[in-house]
Design goal:
Elements (H helix, E strand, L loop, with lengths): L1 H31 L1 H37 L10 E6 L4 H13 L5 E4 L21 H19 L4 E6 L2 E3 L3 H16 L16 E5 L3 E3 L5 E5 L26 E10 L4 E5 H13 L14 H11 L4 E5 L3 E5 L2 E2 L15 E2 L2 E3 L9 H5 L5 E2 L9 E2 L10 E4 L4 E2 L48
Parallel strand pairs: 1-2, 1-3, 5-10
Antiparallel strand pairs: 3-9, 4-11, 5-9, 6-8, 7-8, 7-17, 8-10, 11-14, 12-13, 15-16, 17-18
Amino acid sequence: MGFQAAYQTRSVRWIIPFIGLITCALTWLRFHDPRLQGDQESWNEQKASDEQRIQEQEAVKEHQFQESIQDIMNATLGFNKVLAINIPSRTDKRDQLVLGSSLTGFVIDFIDGVNADEINPKTYPYNWNQEHSATEYACLRAHLNAAQRIVQQGLRTALILEDDVDWDISIKPQLQTFAHAVRTLQGTTQNHTDSPYGDEWDILWLGHCGASCKTELPFYMIPNDPTLLKSAHLPTYYHSPPENARPDDTRLVCTMEDAACTPAYAMSYRGAQRVLAALSVNPSGFEGKLQTGDQIDLELGRMCNSGLLKCFAPFPSLTGTYRSAGLSSKGTDQSGHEGGIQMERAASWGVVYSTMLNTKHILQGERVVYATWPDVQHPNIKPEDIHFERGYVYDYRSEEVSDPIPIPTPEEEIVDEPVFADDPSFTDEPYSISRPHATREWHMKESGS
């Protein structure tokens, strides 16, 4: 045994220097043998080729993404259809929607609203809260009819509007920026998707009177948004993101936790199926994910919060509210408000460059549009000069902000013209009127709008 151990020790002592000698020889050959140098050059060329191929693939994906975003410029804002809920007897509201959409380049199909006195009691869900009025159920039913239309016609997506909605004159560029935000949050900016807004969503709550965010998930921040209202002009909001999460000049987009009011929201086919199932066909199978027979916005908000629906929202809202000039009761479809005899001028709140308030100027061929309030950065501006910066992802939990990546934009050309020249179609005091959405009854209308 002693001889064997001594032999093994001598062998190990001999092998270690031998391995070192071979290593040195191979290293020398690597840098001096032309054939091995050729292999190194070939490897470098292959690496460069791989990197170029990856760059080309990323360029193709970026091109496909930009083409997809461009679909938002079409006649349905990148959705399969735009649906508006309206009681046929309110022809005035239908007129303003048709005219406003024609001026901003999209087309609306209508869903007839539901009158409370036409409701069959058998249609009420088993858990409907009887403390709510028939008018409130009529509102919910009208929105369910919109979801039914989506499923019946096999629409992948549809935008649903209420008939007193107003939107910014730059709605299409706004929605392109929003689409980039929600696709970033979905992780699909480099993937092919059927919708320019991505495919991993059920509700895009574009218009609201308050939205809160799931703070465990990232936000998307859009800085220096030229269509963002100053804090003093924000309507009454019932929900909001965490305090100090959003700089004053920044619009935020997040995975939504809850929201109030339904002036404008998009719904996917899958989302419409789940809404019909939960709120009409089989509500008993969704306990814990719904309110107990409540209004449409509370129900949808609870479904978003529970995870039954995957929802995204901007804050502040992208849309606002419009009331045309005339009787003070024009702003509501609720029964008991027909007797309003006070005459009031047209008013809009919630958007900077109101489509409805700028109707006359567009029809007269003016090159500029006017802000609802004179204290914005650009009280009047050419629509083509409204630009949006690319945003950045913000993690509220860690408060770590990635560097914003601005999109180069041409210098804005501002036309120096008066803004409020005693024009009766404008109001610089949007809060001097009774704001319908300053109470929870705002959205409780017979038309469901």
